[in-house]
């Protein structure tokens, strides 16, 4: 859970995240030291001992629960981070401005992004598929007049669920989006063609064999 700081001049070191053991009911770890509120936390979907979180201070952070230290910090979304998920080498984040970003954790490099009108409220991905949900802040939109509640005429108030399949265009050579296709022979440090399901450890082992 995210815990707000209190007291004069934030004497306790800023806002934090406290992790509790369900088996013992006791505090297992405390991480973070931020002036902003923690808005989203993902511990279930990531690697063991790594916690991914987002903050109102616009940053996505990854903490190692064994040491309590931050292992990654990305300046991600100018209206605050609203959804996060990570795995061994990449992060996917969503923001209040409607932007979804895929990041390479070790290089802190953005690999891909997509924008929709409403804030990102949900993110889920696997090796080749990304699902996002953008939900508007306004839950009861009105029509042209105060008595008009016909939502069919006002699509701008509706949320959007998007499914991105990064294996779909793997054979299209001139598409900027196929980040699943790469042979890693390019010397460029910034490359869109980085696979969602290819950790660097496996690639390094393959290149030296």
TrEMBL record:
Gene3D superfamilies: YVTN repeat-like/Quinoprotein amine dehydrogenase (2.130.10.10)
Protein name: F-box/WD repeat-containing protein 8
Organism phylogeny: Eukaryota, Metazoa, Chordata, Craniata, Vertebrata
Gene from which the chain derives: LOC105903587
């Amino acid at each position: 859970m995210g815990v707000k700081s209190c007291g004069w001049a934030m004497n306790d070191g800023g806002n934090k995240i406290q992790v509790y053991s369900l088996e013992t009911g006791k505090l297992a770890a405390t991480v973070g030291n931020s002036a902003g509120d923690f808005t989203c936390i993902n511990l279930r979907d990531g690697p063991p001992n790594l916690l991914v979180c987002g903050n109102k201070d616009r940053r996505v952070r990854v903490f190692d629960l064994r040491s309590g230290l931050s292992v990654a910090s990305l300046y991600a979304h100018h209206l605050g981070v609203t959804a996060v998920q990570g795995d061994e080498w990449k992060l996917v984040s969503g923001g209040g401005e409607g932007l979804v970003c895929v990041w390479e954790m070790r290089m802190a490099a953005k690999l891909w992004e997509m924008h929709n009108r409403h804030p990102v409220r949900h993110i889920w991905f696997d090796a080749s598929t990304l699902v996002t949900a953008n939900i508007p802040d306004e839950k009861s939109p009105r029509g042209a007049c105060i008595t008009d509640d016909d939502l069919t005429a006002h699509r701008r108030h509706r949320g959007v669920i998007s499914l991105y399949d990064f294996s779909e265009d793997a054979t299209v050579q001139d598409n900027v989006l196929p980040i699943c296709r790469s042979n890693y022979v390019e010397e460029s440090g910034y490359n869109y063609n980085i696979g969602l399901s290819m950790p660097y450890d496996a690639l390094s082992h393959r290149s030296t064999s």
